[in-house]
Amino acid sequence: MTQPTRSALLSAALALAGVGVPVLPLRAGKVPVGNCPACVRNACGGRPNMKTPGPCTCPHPCHGWAAASTDPAVIGSLAWRSAWRDAAAVAYHPGGAGLTVVDLDHADAITWARAHLPATRTVRTTRGEHWIYRGAMPSANAVRDGVDIKSSLSYARWLGPGSGTLTGLPDTVRGLAVRKPAVVRPVAAAVPAGGAGCCPHRSPGYLERGITMAEQTITAAPNAVHATVYRTFLAVLSAHGRCGCLTDHHVGRLFTAAQSKGESARHCSDAWANARARVGV
To answer: What band does 203 get if pLDDT is binned at 50, 70 and 90?
Structure first.
């Protein structure tokens, strides 16, 4: 497929903004660009899918959904010029437009939606469909296999107007975002080298320092968060996974640190399970 030109993307963005849809540039890989010179390619460390603006000194938000605007003077400004030059697509903030996108990532998810959700405007995606409803709600990832909800504090790729009549946001979709608290399973204890019930660690503070350092490693990661979380989980389990002293509280702290960087509970659980399998605990 031909790559859209900068002028075509800018024209599409201005057209959307003209009907009240907040827009932002999106580079290859569905990653928002930094919309000011200091933050080009996220040089300042800003996260692309955050709930607050990234840790930069810009006078205005310039990352992810927080950067989305309907102001033509902002969208076509000199500050955004490099952003559009790097852009591969236009994204928008559904919640800012009073919309909710149910992102169906594969055929099984589409089959489920057709059986359980009311018909509405539909847009084809690379692997599935976006079902768009009138009304905003909290966003949530992985509410079902292959189903994400993009609305407030999130962004979605603009793939055209789609087909079908836009209908009101149903309670069925709202209910998908109401999750039960994640269950963190404790590490299966192995018999420590020092004998049953004996922890080989040198002092009571050794584990605490390890968990604190692991939290800091995750929260300080400027990019490659998935890989950082997995490597950190692996390091913790390598050091503390076989003596039986890790508790749900410790694991919960690691998950909380990862989720503060945008990781979902599912991704945390998968990374933890993979690290346990690698270590053999």
So the answer is: low
